[in-house]
Amino acid sequence: MPRLKKQNIIKRPRKRAIPLQTVKGMRDILPTEQFIWEHILNKSKKLCDDFGFRKIDIPILEYSELFKRGVGQTTDIVEKEMFSFETRGGDKVSLRPEGTAGIARAYIQNGMSRWTQPVKLYQEGSMFRYENPQEGRYREFHHFGFEIFGDGCPAIDAQVIYLAWKIFQKIGVKNLAIQINSIGCSECRPNYKNLLTDYYEMKINKLCVDCRKRLTKNPLRLLDCKEDKCMQVASSAPQIIDHLCGDCHDHFKNTLEFLDELELPYVLNSNLVRGLDYYTRTVFEIWSSDSDSLGRQSSLGGGGRYDDLIGVLGGGDVPAVGFAFGVERVVKKLLSGKISLDKKNTKQVFLVQLGDTAKKKALKLFDKLIDSKVSVGESLGRGSIKSQLKIANRFSSKFALIIGQKEALDGTVIIRDMESGIQEVITMDKVVGEVKRRLKK
Ligand code: HAM
Q: I need a surface site. Which of 79, 258, 307, 437 has the fewest CB within 10 A?
């Protein structure tokens, strides 16, 4: 073979290997986990329906300015955690880091102040925060949340907390605690912030680097720093509930009275301030009592009142209150309670077939069964009856419907009780009725 001259060798551009893994901090939700997601979301939606909420879907992408103004320029979310970029047309946009600002935008944009108030909305979907991923903290995660616009009454704060609590009860999450505080309003908070700043300035040497920055930018956030040394300083800091104006004081007192009436167990937590700037008055979180490896309790969800947000965004004076929980954290909590994954993926009956004619009959029977609302499994690609019966067992099916070569010719089906192993032959036209009759027993 003649040797190729160097200039005859065509250099193909080397293809870069596709990284076959999810982007850092993002994850697949596999079919084995889906039943638990459905369980959580279905129960939450049902309760929201019962409480008179209506579903809203909003885009994943919003103008960055919405979050800067709504969530707050100096919050960790806006300062460090947004996935922001410029579109080809030059618009500055961000993947939503949370849902409330977008729903408030939708309230204004769609003229919802002209609807009957209060407007009660719920939402589910992906949120994006560029955080350091760790257990229970992802860069793409999912919220289920609900908001009430147009009612400033403390009974509404209590109703939102009650609904959040009830959702967790219905889902089956145990060992929870409601942490609650009031962070006042634009009247009383500035004065408290000054007091807090004075206090922390005297302790500046005991603070972590981040808290030293917070002292000038966002002093309230000093109270919920999770560094040990900062937590110690926070434990003797002045408490905002001692510095609320008359209206905020009454609002908080009334909210607590409603919670007492509803017999909800809550803990007053004077260091709870939440990480988003739009809150006014009531703030609360629902904590799981299982602590993480550092002994800290994790927050499954949080919310509060945000009476100024619609105004800040240019929509006038509309009080509002809401809550959202992180679905991944609730999934994790439920799974740690040893819910069996396989048991949940069940089929009432399982179709077993042998040979091509039987396969055709099985396809038709499958269609009839699902039309009759019978949950049915199949494994049409498999040839051996034994292996198909094994799968039927994995799906915890009560009955297997077996169509062998003989049955395919005879127009019959063998119905096998999977527990007792007892088998009977019935004609194809009677099989759906017979299955439904037996399932009812
Ligand atoms: P948030 O506390 O920032 O509140 O988020 C609510 C919940 O989302 C948290 O309690 C947590 O369970 C979950 N979560 C937050 N970040 C992550 C993450 N990186 N990975 C996994 N889960 C996470 C809000 O976003 C407010 N919009 C809630 C609200 C609604 N306030 C009034 N209305």
A: 437
